[in-house]
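Could you please review the protein record set out just below?
***
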Amino acid sequence: MPMDVFATPAGAVDSLMARGAAFLGTRYAILGGAMSWVSERNLVAALSNAGAFGVIACGAMMPDRLAEEIAGTQALTDKPFGVNLITMHPNLMELVQVCLDAKVGHIVFAGGIPPGPAIKAAKEGGAKVICFAPALALAKKLVRSGADALVIEGSEAGGHIGPVSLTVLAQEILPHIRDVPVFVAGGIGRGEAILSYLEMGAAGVQIGTRFVCATESIAHPNFKRAFIRGAARDAMPTVQLDESFPVIPVRALQNEGTKRFLEHQAEVIRRYKAGEVAKEAGQLDIEHFWAGALRRAVIDGDVENGSLMAGQSVGMVTKEQPAAEIIAELLEQAQAALTARRAGA
């Protein structure tokens, strides 16, 4: 690329994204966050076709179902895309093989530290491995274990979250991890934020919530309306009532379901203290409360009783628009911020 290209704001943003884009094989270093039931073939292909990097959310899919989804995505795009696998899946090794058989170039391991054999199989099969790192020590360990890139996701994100914000994680991790590209995630909804993290040393960004209301997203109109109406303060993590019954925090828009979840926890804890239920059975009862809840909201449109997993950037989702338009908007905002800075504004 000629040096004078970097003199323009667009060229400068491109140069900041160059490492991440080269790693992904895309025009832009923007990963689509893998959202169960939302990140399927239509949205994934739309993101990749627009120059970003779509990622299929495997979630609880079994190997045959994942193979079908990958083939469906490949029918809609010839651009690179990845697959997000949950490390706790009982068929993890088979899912890795499904990805390799379909020539998927990037496998994202999420939901815990991936087993060594899964990383080894993915890499030996020719795929690049992306892992989530919630702390600097773990980031270093994952790189030593063979991770080709990392994602650091702050507590501003939607769905299952850790306790630390991206603002802090970025300061803790970005200055110290240089061997592999690091993508940042959590609460990113505008181009100015993308620019600031790129300038801190991030190779690119992962965005989920902002793409839920893409025209190509199959999310139910009710689900999309909830996002368009939602504000940052509405996307709250689930509350744990008793440390004896741990609850993995899930950030979601508050609704009748989240209120009933608190009531359900309180009732289970009461029964446990009264000797009516064993602790293990009570814990299982609490964990099963949300079974199928995300599908009820995303696919069926039950936004009162289903789970409305959303990041705090939900307040920046104001309308339904094509994925390509969202990406263009984000890039224009980043470029405008650079232009204003150069003009001394």
Q: What stands out?
A: The first strand starts at residue 30 and ends at 32.
